[in-house]
Amino acid sequence: MRFILSSSKFLNSSNHFIPLSSSSTPKFSPFIAATMSTVSNTHNDVTTTQIKHHPLQVAKRLEKFKTTIFTQMSMLAAKHGAINLGQGFPNFDGPDFVKEAAIQAIRDGKNQYARGYGVPDLNNAIAERFKKDTGLVVDPEKEITVTSGCTEAIAATILGLINPGDEVILFAPFYDSYEATLSMAGAKVKSITLRPPDFAAPIEELKSAISKNTRAIMINTPHNPTGKMFTREELNFIASLCIENDVLVFSDEVYDKLAFDVEHISPASLPGMFERTVTMNSLGKTFSLTGWKIGWAIAPPHLTWGVRQAHSYLTFATSTPMQSATAAALRAPDSYFVELKRDYMAKRAILVEGLEAVGFKVFPSNGTYFVVVDHTPFGHENDVAFCEYLIKEVGVVAIPTSVFYLNPEDGKNLVRFTFCKDEGTLRAAVERLKEKLRK
Ligand SMILES: Cc1ncc(COP(=O)(O)O)c(C=O)c1O
To answer: What InterPro entries is this protein classified in (predicted)?
Structure first.
């Protein structure tokens, strides 16, 4: 059986994608396989099954996103025994006290539908943490909505507050769900490119991108994939533009506890900004429990209204026992967050030193668990070709960044590695790079 995949841009909704060059023809596609239906014929007690091929179908608003080839490349990675520094999830487990809290909640019978906007204890814990982190006092009942991961907070925010035709400005490279969800909302996406070496926000470009139709600016700090953290100066400027033009900020802060060298600043904490900001976050990165998918959106009541309207019809409520455990997680002692940061800084050092030693130009990562490098010293045509070479010939997986841009050309020199892996895995990857990567 042979499946053809006609995609030159490879995205999926959870940041887990690995590319193939456009010249490649993947041989296996579970995505396409899933579009086949089986037709059973029963004759003389014998059942035969024929595969009937259907053309792929997708609504127009998602047409341009093609399909992920993550699965195919994971298979390729497995075939080549590649070490996966592509996927943004830890290969180690979350803390026992949080897992125990979930088990206890299940034993205690916290197993039926939760209150739609969050179990009261979690809303309270989120408010407590937000106050600790930002100094802002929010009403847990009126200003916090618990969602299924930050991904749903993003979707509920966009679908609940953006009208068809509204313009939303993204900083490219951007997390893949933003563009797809904006497309589902019928929004017009404008993107401003953050460029190496420091990925500074090009303020003048931003200023000229704002029009009377601009409804929101999406900010992600610390920033995936670059590790950039928006500075107070940049955020103050963005804030003044938003206030002047009556624009909202949707702020994705899932890596806020992985801010290494620079202070993390929540846009909502800047003067005049709380009333126009939706702050989104989740449990996954901070507690190494990405599979739990508990997230939240914090916003003033007039914006929370829209978020909750969308959330009510997207998922209505999210996992009850995991919400209880998340409340326990967020009340972790300060030492937990200090150790998390220290561990990640050690991991970052192993990877960054290794990448520099083999000849990459490595751009500073001040936050997140990603680092972006310039692969061009190795002479490959683009990021996709380089990543393919890296898997097949070196045995390491990285992510081509062109998939994070409206204009993929902007990312063709850059690839992203993650250091959310145990130190042994990071050292093994560095060894492979040293041994096999050739200029
Ligand atoms: C920038 C960013 N936002 C949101 C998410 C998704 O968060 P969650 O797993 O809580 O849905 C990710 C996950 O990779 C991310 O990198």
So the answer is: Aminotransferase_I/II_large, Kynurenine-oxoglutarate_AT, PyrdxlP-dep_Trfase, PyrdxlP-dep_Trfase_major, PyrdxlP-dep_Trfase_small
Task: Mark whether 162 and 289 lie in a shared domain.
Answer: yes
Distance 435 CA to ligand 1 centre (A): 33
pLDDT (mean) for 25-31: 34
Residues near ligand 1 with C-beta < 6 Å?
15, 88, 149-151, 175, 220, 224, 252, 254, 282, 284, 290, 293, 295
Q: Is the peptide bond before 197 cis (omega within 30 degrees of 0)?
A: yes
Residues 196, 284, single domain; the answer is yes
- CA separation for the pair 419, 89 (Å, rounded): 9
Domain that includes residue 314, residue range: 96-331
Determine the Cα–Cα distance for residues 290 and 418; give it in Å rounded to an integer. Answer: 14
In a domain, 84, yes or no: yes
Give the CATH number for residue 243: 3.40.640.10
Q: Domain end: 316, 331, 346, which one?
A: 331
**In degrees rounded to 5, what are phi and psi of residue 396?**
-135, 140
- Residue 77 has a pLDDT of 78
What's residue 70's pLDDT? Answer: 56
The verdict on 316 and 168 lying in the same domain is yes
Q: Does residue 341 share a domain with residue 236?
A: no
The answer on pLDDT for 37 being more than 80 is: no
Whole-angstrom distance, CA of residue 324 vs CA of residue 248: 31
Asked if the structure places residue 22 within a domain, the reply is: no
**pTM greater than 0.85:** yes
147 and 291 Cβ atoms separated by less than 8 Å: no
